[in-house]
Amino acid sequence: MKSDTTISTIHYKLLFASLFCCLLVLLSGCGTRKVQQIALPADFKGPKELERIYGVRITPNDNIFLYNEGARWLGVPHRLGGTTKSGIDCSGFVTQVYRLVYDKQLARSSADMLKQNCRKIGREGLREGDLVFFRTGGSKRGIPNHVGIYLKNGRFIHTSTSGGVMISSLSEPYYIKTWLTGGRVK
Q1: For the segment 158-179, what is each residue's pLDDT rounded down to a tens digit?
Q2: Does the residue 134 lie in any domain?
Q3: Tell me, what DSSP letter sits at residue 13?
Q4: For labelling alongside 25, which of 6, 58, 63, 152 has CA 20 to 30 A away?
Q5: Cβ-Cβ contacts under 8 Å for 26 (sequence gap 6 or more)
Q6: How many other CB atoms are found less than 10 A from the CB of residue 99?
Q7: Quick check: is 41 in a domain?
Q8: Distance (Å, rounded) from C-alpha 60 to C-alpha 81?
Q9: Mean pLDDT, the chain, whole residue set
Q10: Closest to 126 measured CA to CA, from 173, 58, 184
């Protein structure tokens, strides 16, 4: 028969081994990848509704959050210097959407956005989320005084002084005439 000391040692070794195994199981659970749930806003629109609103096909490659956020602002009236849904101007709209969708802080004026936040690109190189700059009059040559966000298929969203937040086409004569440059945010 074994002594009490030997039995106690065996019990301690078994207890230690059991605790060590439990610890390993717990720690290995920490290394597993957990699926992060994204909380969608209550007014989130699906791809079909956004396609109807924008007149473009929404694919899995598109940033649906950009389209949804833009749709939330459609129809908000223009107000010079405004930054809320009671009234907003073009650069205020772009800064709000960029902050909410891309978590990026942009300069407050269209001229400063182009100068400080963007790399110039041509019309043919535009991609979703790029900025589109216009000189609509009243500003110095080469300095924009209007900005919008490019979507796709020649369409962009912006704040117009006459129509508030709206979707327009780069192929409209007015925007062909006033086009200045595209800008890819750095």
Answers
A1: 999 999 999 999 999 999 999 9
A2: yes
A3: H
A4: 6
A5: none
A6: 13
A7: no
A8: 35
A9: 85
A10: 184
Residue 51 maps to which CATH number?
A: 3.90.1720.10
Total domain count, the chain = 1
Residue 30 pLDDT: 43
| Domain span at 176 | 47-185
Q: Is the pLDDT of residue 17 over 60?
A: no
> How big is the chain, counted in residues?
186
Residue 112 placed within a domain: yes
d(Cα 1, Cα 122) in Å, to the nearest integer? Answer: 91
**DSSP secondary structure, 90-102, as one string:** HHHHHHHHIIIII
**Average pLDDT value for residue range 95-122:** 98
Residue 11 lies in a domain: no
Q: What is the pLDDT, as a whole number, of residue 36?
A: 54
Distance between CA atoms of 77 and 35, rounded to whole angstroms?
A: 39
